[in-house]
Design brief:
Blueprint lengths: L3 E5 L20 E2 L2 E2 H11 L4 E6 L4 H6 L4 H9 L3 H12 L2 E6 L6 H6 L2 H4 L4 E4 L3 E4 L4 H12 L2 E7 L9 E9 L2 E9 L10 E9 L3 H7 L10 H11 L2 E5 L3 E4 L3 H12 L6 H11 L1
Parallel strand pairs: 1-4, 1-6, 4-5, 8-12
Antiparallel strand pairs: 2-3, 6-11, 7-13, 8-11, 9-10, 10-12
Helix pairs in contact: 3-4
The structure holds uridine 5'-triphosphate.
The site of uridine 5'-triphosphate (UTP) has 20 residues, from α5.
């Protein structure tokens, strides 16, 4: 049973400087909600309530966002703003957020390893807060079901254009079911023209606890960081590792263009904003 999810949010967010200098990029709004709230909502909609948030220096505001805000709630109550009060209250009640500090940004693999004392000997989900996935059935829920069916680690992948494979971790895999692949190997950011496929790893994983001792012994990889992909390559030598090619849209909100794209696409789903935004898009094109 997968009962815990980990969100690594201790990265520096250099692609968003200077905006991310004092404000965690995970709190940048996609329309009117911080991007990380979409991730927490996906976790909750997948049946998980215990969330391990990996934070670092300057990320305390993320914890405040998911905490109760007594003064604000009291004020909204006195002002009779019931709807917005309900919205604010829901945020602090939807999940148990357990925060763990990563003392230095030593890589995604290291950030995941920081969750070990809280996760213990259980399988768990990992969701990168940058990757927003718009889907009716949450991607994480589908992956948990597949994890239980196949009894092996599950990694989300999506098809990318051949000329973009050097930007992602790419899998070498064999299709074993509808949208499910058994992974033979993985390469982190392969040089152009050398990628084994166009299936790119994106920010959703269901991992067994056996990943922890592997990450603990892993030497720093690309960029001097402990890379989760290197850990998964080791795991695949010992146990089955699968990929799930999820249907639906994914936006990389940690990248400027992906962030703008996410804002436009989510705004187009908002009945108040959509007509005006459509008019504007038509005007400027
Ligand atoms: P990224 O590689 O996207 O790094 O990390 P980043 O720091 O967030 O952003 P850029 O590239 O500098 O703009 C992928 C995920 O792993 C987390 C990040 O917070 C992000 O969610 N991470 C990365 C950590 O928690 N710790 C790390 O040491 C590295």
């Amino acid at each position: 049973m997968v009962t815990k999810a980990l969100i690594p949010a201790a990265g520096l967010g250099t692609r968003f400087l200077p905006a991310s200098k004092a404000i965690p990029k995970e709190l940048f709004p996609i329309v009117d909600k911080p991007s990380i709230q979409y991730i927490v909502e996906e976790i909750v909609a997948s049946g998980i309530r215990d969330i391990i948030l990996i934070t670092g220096r300057g990320k305390s505001a993320i914890k405040d966002h998911f905490d109760t805000s007594y003064e604000l709630e009291d004020l909204l109550d006195k002002q009779g703003k019931k709807d917005v009060l309900e919205t604010v209250r829901k945020i602090s009640h939807m999940a148990n957020i357990i925060s763990v500090r990563q003392k230095a940004p030593r890589g995604l693999g290291h950030a995941i390893l920081c969750g070990r004392p809280v996760i213990g000997n259980e399988p768990f989900a990992v969701l990168l807060p940058d990757d927003l996935i718009d889907q009716e059935i949450p991607c994480t829920k589908q992956m948990i079901d597949l994890f239980e069916k196949h009894q092996g680690a599950m990694i989300a992948v999506t098809k990318v254009a051949k000329e973009n494979t050097h930007l992602y971790g790419i899998i070498d895999a064999k299709e074993v079911g509808e949208r499910v692949y058994r992974i033979k190997n993985m390469v982190e950011k392969p040089p152009p023209g050398t990628a084994p496929s166009n299936l790119a790893i994106i920010g959703r994983y269901i991992l067994p606890p056996e990943i922890f001792p592997i990450l603990e012994k892993l030497p720093p990889g690309r960029g001097g960081e402990i890379q989760i992909t290197d850990g998964l390559v080791e795991l695949a030598k010992r146990a089955p590792v699968y990929a799930f090619e999820f249907p639906g849209y994914r936006y990389d909100a940690g990248d400027k263009f992906g962030f703008l794209q996410a804002n436009i696409m989510y705004a187009l789903k908002d009945p108040d904003l959509a007509p005006r935004l459509r008019r504007l898009l038509k005007e400027i094109s």
